Amino acid sequence: MEGLELTAFQIISAVGTARSSYIEAIQKAKEGKFDEAEQLIKEGDEMFVEGHHAHAGLLEIEANQGQGSAVSLIILHAEDQLMSAEGFKTIALEFIDLYKRLVKLEK
Fold first, then answer.
1. Catalytic residue (one of 52, 53, 55, 77)
2. Residue 10: enclosing H or E segment and its boundaries?
3. C-alpha distances out from residue 16 to 31, 36, 58, 66, 86, Å
4. Whole-prediction pTM value?
5. Is 52 among the catalytic positions?
């Protein structure tokens, strides 16, 4: 495997790990483990950036070649996963905030 396919799988792997970290952060916040939740958000961010850089590399190659490339389903899937992970981060941050507020109200 090489080229676009390899880059697509790098994106999918990195952002999939990021999304899992964001989901786990919500679960930790639900348990009241806010430090762990915040650490998982940071870990997710690191993986997301890795996937984002791989995606940016694809865009840079296309821009430098001056021509459009054929879009494959695997690239579309990689971009879908990238956007999904970004959405999960937003949701995770909102849930963490919500759980922190609930803890304060319960006290």
1. 77
2. helix 3-30
3. 23, 19, 18, 30, 10
4. 0.88
5. no
